[in-house]
Amino acid sequence: MQMTNLTTLGLDPNKIYLIIHADDAGLCSAENEATKMALQNGSINSFSIMPPCPGFKEMLSFAKTNPYLDCGIHLTLTCEWKDFKWGPVLGKDKVPSLVDASGHFYKKREMFLTHAKPEEVLLELEAQIQLVLDAGVNPSHLDSHMYTLGLSEELLNIYRFLGKKYQLPVLLDSALLKLKNIDLDILNDKEDIIMDEVYLGTFEEFQKGALATFYENTLLNLTPGLNIILLHPAFNNAEMQAITIDHPNFGAAWRQIDYDFFTSSKCASIIANKSIEMITWQEIKQIIYN
Fold first, then answer.
1. Mean pLDDT, all residues of the chain
2. Which backbone phi and psi does 3 adopt, to 5 degrees?
3. In this predicted structure, what is the pLDDT of residue 2?
4. Mean pLDDT of 260-285
5. Closest by alpha carbon to 39, among 73, 75, 66?
6. Phi, psi of 190 (to 5 degrees)
7. pTM for this predicted structure
8. Any idea where the domains of the chain sit in the sequence?
9. For residue 110, which of 180, 58, 208 has the smallest C-alpha distance?
């Protein structure tokens, strides 16, 4: 198995490498504005956009006019919110197994897994990637909304196939794959770069008011290797509150904490004082596909 060690990428095995990554760009205006500000004025150094979502074109334009920023594609096959919905970029008629009776993506990953046909998954995801490419944006990587593409070995292989086809690294999280009993020995290609550590806040920490503390402790306790912190920065305003109604997990208040901490001087100071080497997906892409 091609487990990530930094020598695979030609990087210093004694250094702490870190990506601070914002998911869900393109979701809506509150998400987009916070993500833009965090990229330009904070410590977040990577983001990925959701092609099926209402705010996609706005964030795509931002990515095009700021090509120095590390922009990936957040491959999206589910829609978790109560009233805020979206569906496939190909339309429901071309990929009917991916949508519910209303023509929207399924809310739950389990429902998606039950109904989705692999050939329609591939068609939809190729269309999502093509939307970004056709706009003239040079994406840095692929990742998966709600890590839906890690639900089965078949989906994982579609994910990996797309990475190789478009020469884009994909986010691979061994801990999440193990939860689904996926045999990690299949990840044996040179492009299969698995993060040493993937950090994501939990609902328990949020409920305790300890989410910012979790992020601080994560930064303070990073160890050598390839690390990524996954965030969802947004503003806790009326728009975001309406979208995330009855969904406090990754809700509006949570996303405001993500924004606040990773644009703070405390965050920047920890990164500087701990000698953390910030790295981007674009750099990893250049190493793998050079």
1. 95
2. -65, 145
3. 45
4. 97
5. 66
6. -65, -25
7. 0.97
8. 6-288
9. 180
